């Protein structure tokens, strides 16, 4: 069957196309009985508004957009983005607003997508994710006048409103937990250094660790499981290895846990592990992972509500969500007592190494 048109409705109702347009768009020009009859016929025929025609008539596309500058294969494995998108979509589905989603190979390609969408009236606004320390997208979106909501800290955003959570506070929560367990030499496996949230977390840890009597080594990765595992192996087989590792995502934390166990180390007996980000992955491994947890889906929903308001032409303020809380599970415990200058025994345990060097009775 062909898609029903306003002309079909007009023929069935015995009125002009102009009268149908007035009725469907809630404008004056037809009587109330005629309006009700036209709406009933439209519903019976299964008529839906033509988004392209609507964009031409009032400039609205009736959709929002999200572009992610990450490989598609990684997005399928990254719980954070799946939770974020589900929250955005759940909020947008309330009024039937679709989400136009795509991936870009780099930031320039992402910018070209925004220009194309805006010129073609494909979207009424966009969500901006993965803010960078030097971000070329902000001035372009401001120049276009494109309604935008940043999902990230309100730093370097220009006039663009943000929905954010305090990463510095989350860093403090994680480090205090490890310090209370006696950990003094810790490591962090982070994401790409050019991302704004990586910089915020790194600065917070660099500032906080000395106040807690801790030393912290940071290793940057691309957030992939392979690089997370490689970073863990490098840290745990090096000189003076850490007694605890904080991973910047749940995916890398799970891969780090697996790598530590493959080396014969006990978690948390020889090394404690904390994930920054919580998902079902953290509870499916053994031991289950202690993780910084927040409601990412709700975060996405808040961003969607804010973008709807911005697209309507209303000036808004930044929205701060609750900071991450620590979900305590089995992957963290007291810092192991190690023999000075002796790393945990690969293929054994720190306790085994200590026993091997302890004095024996005559």
Automatic annotation (TrEMBL):
GO terms for molecular function: DNA-binding transcription factor activity; transcription cis-regulatory region binding. SUPFAM superfamilies: lambda repressor-like DNA-binding domains, Periplasmic binding protein-like I. Keywords: DNA-binding, Transcription, Transcription regulation. Residues 333-362 have a biased composition (Low complexity). CDD domains: HTH_LacI, PBP1_LacI_sugar_binding-like. PROSITE patterns: HTH_LACI_1 (PS00356), HTH_LACI_2 (PS50932). Residues 330-362 are annotated as: Disordered. Transmembrane segments: none annotated. Residues 4-58 form the HTH lacI-type domain. PANTHER family: ALANINE RACEMASE (PTHR30146:SF155), LACI-RELATED TRANSCRIPTIONAL REPRESSOR (PTHR30146). This is LacI family transcriptional regulator. It comes from Peterkaempfera bronchialis. The lineage of its organism: Bacteria, Bacillati, Actinomycetota, Actinomycetes, Kitasatosporales.
